[in-house]
Amino acid sequence: MSATETRALTPPNRVYPGYVFDLDGTVYLGESLLPHAAQTIRELKARGSRVVYVTNKPLETADEYAHKLTRLGVPTTRSDVVTSVDALVDYLHHAHPGATVLAVAEQSAIDELSAAGFPLTTEPSQAEVVVVSFDRTFDYAKLNAAFQAVRYGSAVIVATNPDPYCPTPEGGIPDCAAMLAAIEACSGASAEAVVGKPSVHMARALLGRLGMSAQDVAVIGDRLLTDMAMARSLGMTGILVLTGATRADSLYGAPVQPHYMINSLDDLLPEGLSPDGPESSSLLEEESG
Q: Which of 112, 138, 151, 219 is deepest in the core (most CB within 10 A)?
């Protein structure tokens, strides 16, 4: 066992000023909160930590995720949630300000692009950027429009997230990577950027939302190649939780390693700080004192 793998089996020993929580598999599964999620997050906030939530899934808006978390018992506002569409909008504002977009996406993502001020088109010859997202309405007409815009026009491709499939209670359905692969295969072009986790574009969006530097932020998630890879991309601390997609034995030989690994969110708090226990002095104050 390597030093990295040994360290990964140890829970964190400090409270961080900022936390980024993945959602499905970390805070909740489906419509149920995972054990200790609400209590742990409440305790972190009581100790002065700033908390935001991140998801690659572009089928719902940040407002809808905030409402779901609040309904499940974790009070959340829209500004506390960063989605792959938020990262997409940030990227386009910087790399292609005001560009005309042909969107291979569902209506919620299209509406967010429009609200962000990007002109939208279904005419391939007018497109400057082809946005590719998780799209359950994907069909030959959308594929052909994207193909024409890229192959015979001057459009570049930007995708929301690299996930090949989206987990469901039935097993899973094709995600953004499937739509992107089809467009890349026929057009002969590669995406200029894939902006969701684990990209530095998403990492920068999260740090910007927190208003903190990377060394002050911990990322908690259940996937090595998205959550932990994003944490390492800009020097944040990666904490793998074993309540979702990854088992402990998956770490051996994996190309991406977390800094720490915990069984549940109850283990996120340093020893002696139970989310259900009495209040004690703030570790943030101890560390800064």
A: 219
